[in-house]
Amino acid sequence: MTVELTPEKVFEMGKMWGSAYLSTLNVEEVLPYFKRQDILAQFQPVERLAGLEPEIIEDYLKQLKRQQH
């Protein structure tokens, strides 16, 4: 049986194999392939701050205000 490999079929196979491979990786193995800004852009500001202590947020805001003056 002969299968003709068109560019479209090769692309689809690549997506399939890529998905299968990527699903086996943990977060630490995937993160180096993306820029921090691109990752953060996927989250709303409230989601970015989730889990931070209020003091850390307040200190950062104070630092920003000092830089603006």
Polypeptide structure, described:
This protein is mainly alpha-helical and 69 residues long. The protein has one domain (7-68). The protein is built from five helices and no strands. It has helices at 7-22, 27-30, 36-40, 45-49, 54-68. The longest helix is centred in the N-terminal third of the chain and has 16 residues, at 7-22. The chain starts with 6 loop residues before the first helix and ends with a helix.
Fraction in beta strands? under 5%
Tally of structural domains: 1
Overall mean pLDDT stands at 93
Which outline best applies? elongated
Number of helical segments? 5
Given the helix and strand composition, which structural class is it?
A: mainly alpha
Q: Residue ranges: pLDDT <50 for 5 or more in a row?
A: none
What is the alpha-carbon Rg in Å? 21 Å
Helix content: 55-70%
Q: Give helix and strand order, one letter per element, not per position.
A: HHHHH
The tally of strands reads: 0
Largest sheet: none
Q: Could you give the distance between the termini? A: 73 Å
